[in-house]
């Protein structure tokens, strides 16, 4: 059991190197934003924010009131550190340029999905916030400065608004989880050095897409479903929360694989999940915890982005299962 290390004290003790001051400033702001979002969600229907708007985001998805509310909370709260020179949000088509006067301390890019899984909010299922931090080459970045591969991330993490509110992040030195004490309004270290089990008997995928999957994915899932009588000679369990943050957190805690693979009905879009602020940050977390993360044909963190809201196939989790999935795809390009 950790001796109740508060988040800000953890940062002071563990952040070092060229990004130390910036990470302390930005991560403190990010956790404040997540606490505000937790409060906004916690009031649920009481605040009358459960409805959909008559607007669509850049993804062509109908926006929920909370999508917009949480976007505003996250973007406004994370500006105050003075390190962010540009932002990108799932809810905004274009990058958000930050006035240089607001970023006197350094130049970082903050990319985020303010409320991942938002369609779950009005049915009271866990949702989350996902973020990624990149170094900006310029004090006044343009779109191309955001299009960096995931290996360039200096920090990635998420907040999970579940039975408890948790904050999990990595700066490339392991994955560490914190739980919110609602009475004190502080995050405390509860899950230091999170590690993904290399083997698992649990997979997470939306089975309704089976007929659209490519053969290697159908083969992998078929073998899981054949259980002890099949080639795997063990039974598997399935989960699907339709909230990536909840799935990834479960996998960090007890192992598993999360799959949103390519399928024929989303081939034109390139996949379902967004590279820059969903797949990349979660892939950094997963690899830092000893797992793997692939599109099926390559390591997600090495995908060179060509668009801000680019989508990719995503399969990540327990090392030995992802290695099997990569082998089934017949391409082991890393
Ligand atoms: P489906 C939520 O909208 C999300 O982006 C991920 O959090 C989640 O894993 C996935 O989409 C769910 O997709 O097709 O099952 O609704």
Terminal-residue CA separation: 37 Å
Total strand segments: 17
CATH topology of the largest domain: Fructose-1,6-Bisphosphatase, Chain A, domain 1
> Looking at the structure, what is the overall shape?
globular
CATH architectural group of the largest domain:
2-Layer Sandwich
Outline the structure in words.
The mean pLDDT is 94. The longest helix has 23 residues, at 20-42. This protein has two domains: 7-191, 2-Layer Sandwich (Fructose-1,6-Bisphosphatase, Chain A, domain 1), CATH 3.30.540.10; 202-333, D-Maltodextrin-Binding Protein, domain 2 (3-Layer(aba) Sandwich), CATH 3.40.190.80. Strand 11 (202-204), helix 5 and strand 12 (237-239) form a beta-alpha-beta unit. Strands 4-3-5-6-7-8-9-10 form an eight-stranded mixed beta sheet, with helices on both faces. With 334 residues, the protein is α+β, with helices and mostly antiparallel strands. Helices cover 28% and strands 24% of the residues. Residues 116-117, 119, 206, 242-244, 260, 273 line the site of 6-O-phosphono-alpha-D-fructofuranose. 6-O-phosphono-alpha-D-fructofuranose is lined by residues 116-117, 119, 206, 242-244, 260, 273.
Give a quick precis of the structure.
28% of the residues lie in helices and 24% in strands. The protein is α+β, with helices and mostly antiparallel strands and 334 residues long. Helix 1 (7-14) packs antiparallel against helix 2 (20-42) and helix 2 packs antiparallel against helix 3 (65-77).
Features:
single chain; 334 residues; alpha+beta; Fructose-1,6-Bisphosphatase, Chain A, domain 1; D-Maltodextrin-Binding Protein, domain 2; 8-stranded mixed sheet; 5-stranded mixed sheet; 8 helices; 17 strands; 24% strand; binds 6-O-phosphono-alpha-D-fructofuranose
């Amino acid at each position: 059991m950790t001796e109740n290390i508060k988040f800000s004290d953890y940062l002071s003790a563990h952040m070092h190197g060229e990004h130390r001051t910036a990470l302390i400033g930005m991560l403190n702001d990010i956790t404040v934003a997540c606490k505000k979002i937790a409060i906004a969600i916690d009031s649920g229907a009481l605040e009358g924010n459960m409805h959909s708007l008559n607007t669509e985001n850049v993804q062509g998805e109908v926006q929920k009131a909370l999508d917009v509310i949480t976007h505003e909370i996250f973007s406004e709260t994370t500006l105050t550190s003075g390190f962010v020179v540009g932002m990108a949000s799932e809810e905004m088509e274009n990058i958000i340029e930050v006035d240089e006067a607001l970023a006197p301390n350094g130049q970082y890019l903050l990319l985020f999905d303010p409320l991942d899984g938002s369609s779950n909010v009005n049915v009271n299922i866990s949702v989350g916030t996902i973020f990624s931090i990149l170094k900006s080459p310029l004090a006044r970045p343009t779109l191309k400065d955001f299009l960096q591969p995931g290996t360039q991330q200096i920090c990635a993490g998420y907040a999970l608004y579940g039975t408890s509110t948790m904050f999990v992040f990595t700066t490339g030195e392991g994955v560490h989880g914190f739980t919110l004490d609602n009475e004190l309004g502080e995050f405390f270290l509860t899950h230091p050095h999170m590690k993904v089990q290399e083997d698992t008997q649990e997979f997470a995928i939306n089975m309704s897409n089976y007929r659209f999957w490519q053969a290697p994915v159908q083969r992998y899932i078929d073998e899981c479903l054949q259980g002890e009588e099949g080639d795997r000679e063990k039974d598997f369990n399935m989960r699907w929360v339709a909230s990536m943050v909840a799935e990834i957190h479960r996998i960090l805690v007890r192992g598993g694989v999360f799959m949103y693979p390519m399928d024929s009905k989303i081939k034109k879009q390139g996949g379902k999940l967004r590279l820059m602020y969903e797949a990349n940050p979660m892939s950094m977390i997963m690899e830092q915890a000893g797992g793997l993360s692939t599109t099926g044909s390559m390591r997600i963190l090495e995908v060179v982005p060509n668009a801000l809201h680019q989508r990719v196939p995503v399969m990540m989790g327990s090392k030995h299962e992802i290695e099997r999935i990569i082998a089934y795809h017949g391409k082991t390009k890393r």
